[in-house]
Amino acid sequence: MSLLPAPIAAVRPDFLTRVTPVARLVAGIAWLVAAIATLDPIVPIRLTIAAIVALVLWSGLPLRRIPRRLAPLGFAILSLTAFSILLSGTNADRSLIAIAEFGPIRLTAPAVSAGLAVGLRVVVIGLTTLLVFGPSDPTRMADSLVQQWRLPDRFAYGTLAALRVAPFMADDWIAIAAARRLRGLQAKSPAARIRDTRDRLLVMLVASIRRAERLALAMDARGFDSGIRRTHFRALRMTWRDWLTIAVGLAVAVASLVLPH
Amino acid sequence: MSTDDLNGSADRAVGGAKASGPPSIEAIGLGWTYAGRSRPALRDLTFRLEPGRVLLVLGPSGSGKSTLARALAGLVPHVLAGDWQGSLRVGEMKVAQTPARLLGERVGLVFQDPDSQLVMARVDDEVAFGLENRGWSRPSMQAQVPEALRQVGLSGFELRVTNTLSGGEKQRLAIADVLAAQPSLLVFDEPTANLDPPGMYATMEQLAGLARQRKHTIVLIEHRLEAALPLADDVLLINEEGRQLAFAPAGSVGREAVAMLERSGAWVPRAWNGASPTSAGAGAGAGAGAGKTGPDSGHRPSATGAPLLSAEDLYFHYPTDESGAHAALDGVSLQARAGERIALVGPNGAGKSTLLFILCGLRRPDRGSVGLAALTREEEPAEALRDPSQLKAREIASRIGLVFQDPELGFVGRTARDEVAATDLAARESGSGRESRPPDPDGVLARFGLGHLTDQDPFRLSQGEQRRLSLAALVLRPPAVLLLDEPTFGLDRRGTEAVMKLLDEFRTTGQAQLLATHDPRLLPHCDRVVAMDRGRVVFDGRPAEFLANPPYSPGGPWRDGVASNLASGLASTEAVR
Known about the structure:
The structure holds two protein chains of two kinds. By secondary structure, chain A is mainly alpha-helical.
């Protein structure tokens, strides 16, 4: 019995869903490099806008589900931004004008700008990842990496199989916690909590290894990696869409860097 | 692209040998010991199965049935390490001397757990996976994938996500996976064990269809004997040591062999029970103890016991479920009284797991309420029912317990002894120990037949031992209500009897038990059946009424599945009423 429903992103066909995953990966890497290459917030702002446009117009992803998917990231973004602003060394620089002051806390413009740059970069990373991996299922990504980038079969399809069983690990984690609670085991001190988490991880690890062993045997029984050269059910060939995606992706990355601020 | 095509057609040509039809199987003195084990998994099997026949393999847990399946597919000895004895031939191929690649061309193996044999995220990719591995050309795969899906009744499922299929659909998909590669020997290793009754029914229908075609030699390992036996031409009986008891046509198995099979702890088909003069109580290690003088034989489950659990009008909808499907629970009410044993049945997705989680306070219902009471001594007044989500961990532990289908997930100790002591320790630390009886974990383990394993790591025990340990862990502080998720899953007859006997023993304390189960064989041992479907209770009454007219379509799997050779000493409604 599965204790959790496994929601999956329903993708409707759109421009980016028809693009080879490798082409999206190339464009995405260019964006990430551009976002990380500079310290000001302008480049990440431009890329964020570009990513939102691409998500809305061409990704085929159900838009109303995106905020929930990015919610865990949102917390990281907010805390990163806040800490970067608060802890910036320039706040102490009396030669700079403070744009805000709360008692002893003084925030300078360079600090705010650098903090925003850090937070926005994480936003770009999140949105770009969604654009690269969201519009097609993982199988196509693996096929694409194996066929077009010559990644080893065992690595690519092993990862795929692992992805498929990941939801079961989430189920296991919940069941393990439930079992402990119901036996009256309650970790109170921080040290006991750490021990408890370690023990739970250990149990999950054992369960996962057992499952992985069964899966590996099933794959072997179906001739996986038996020395025959593997063929591919899904054809992947670079089309004009792929080249266009790479060209536009690179152009946006370059433009975000070189356009006047 | 073109090299792929050449490769594919070349390998298809190798597979051309398949045209020679289904193979025979011949074992001579076949034995196997896994590396690192001292005890052989299989010993001295000698039989010959003629081409195109269906062989049913019977034996208790640990008898090496799965090892035989693995050997037929070449996983033993080519993938798993160990010591091989004797010989095994599939057609002209000697398994030990033939590369796994060539065996894989002829042999298809379907495993027990659909979730750990499907590899790909999408149905068509899943079927193609085995063909890709064997180097089929793209055009031949494009023709073969829909054909294989059609054979198992999954046409139109090509683009579905495998994780969203039902258990029965997943298992039929696993069958399509092996059929796609056009093997001439099909091996099924307990293909219905993980399935709910509808899934089991669909899978057995599928197997029956394949058996009728006579295009394959088929080896079937299956516990659901009433459905499996009619398909079999021949049977192979193995005992708990992995030794062959008999190989014979299904219709003419000797009395002595059946008696030996029964003694080994295996499930035995009802049709054979008459043949065995010692049926029912026959030497069943665990069952025999219960006998007529068992602790429970005078027990009369009554509707007048104190209420220990009460759920009123529960409603629950998974917040993450955006499919717009029915609520997981849609107005479920349920009461359990002291000493009552209730079977909770229904297909997967009916809401059983959700109900169990809500009953023990691990989830809060959107609407409705749950009340739990602790057991009181006879002279004390019954305790008021309390909401589990308002209780502290130790208060919950005394009121309700949950045993998972996979006992491993619940283990907290490094040794079996720790495991038994842990619950008691937790209760003592929080100062709720009412009586200060000194805990004796070793004594508990001995009573549960685990006395020789006190210092063993719980994760290293067999499936049956793990199940008993998960129950032993509750002994020092038995909860008033015990919820069990598939308590006899994967157990042979002896293991099932052992678990049921322990449950009988627990019940003498006044414990109420709720068993979520797919196994109809347990129903006669329950006082009540609560049947769920799509989040609602569709039946709540006596097992006999349920079995006479199951509220499901098809009801056959429930009606026909009851027969078993469970020891008669166990408390059952037939015995009591």
